[in-house]
Amino acid sequence: MTTRVADVMTTEVAVVPEAARYKEIVAILRRHGASSVPVLDRGGRVVGVVSEADLLDRHTTRELPSGTIRLAWKLRQWSRAAAATAADLMTAPAVTISPDDSIAEAARLMESRRLRRLPVTDAQGRLAGVISRADVLGAGERPDEHIRHDVMTKVVAGRFGLNPRTFDVTVNSGLVTIAGCVDDQPTAIRLIGAVWQIEGVCGVRDRLLYLTQEQLEACPA
Question: pTM of this prediction?
Answer without folding.
Answer: 0.61
